[in-house]
Amino acid sequence: MDTSFDRFRPDIVYYNAGTDILVGDPLGDMLISPEAVTQRDEIVMSKCLQQGVPVVMLLSGGYTKPLSAQTIARSILNMHEKLQLQPWSPAT
């Protein structure tokens, strides 16, 4: 990821944070643990924050609804705690 940011300085990152990579997902079949998804999200968000690049995190995939929902919730809570991320809200 460092090389990508060094070569291309984006104005914004659209991050597809799909969960169809989770273990047990019938379509993804990639065997990635919920903890690894949380770590993946933290790495992407950290790099964007370090570079001062706004990021839009989009959810997709994930066909094991309870596991996907729990994983996404844990990941967002992790980023909120570790990276002090706050939800975006439009200026009033």
Description:
The structure is a single chain. β1, α2 (34-51) and β2 form a beta-alpha-beta unit. α2 (34-51) runs parallel beside α3 (65-83). It contains 3 helices and 2 strands, in the order αβαβα. The termini are far apart. It has one domain (2-83). The protein has a two-stranded parallel ribbon. It is mainly alpha-helical and 92 residues long. The radius of gyration is 14 Å and the shape is globular. The chain has helices at 2-7, 34-51, 65-83; strands at 13-16, 55-58. The model has no long low-confidence stretch (mean pLDDT 89).
**Amount of beta strand:** 5-15%
Which radius of gyration do the C-alpha atoms yield? 14 Å
The number of domains is 1
Put simply, the count of helices is: 3
The overall strand count is 2
List its traits.
2 strands; 9% strand; 47% helix
In a nutshell, what does this entry contain?
The chain is mainly α and 92 residues long.
Describe how the helices and strands are arranged.
Elements: H1 2-7, E1 13-16, H2 34-51, E2 55-58, H3 65-83
Parallel strand pairs: 1-2
Helix pairs in contact: 2-3
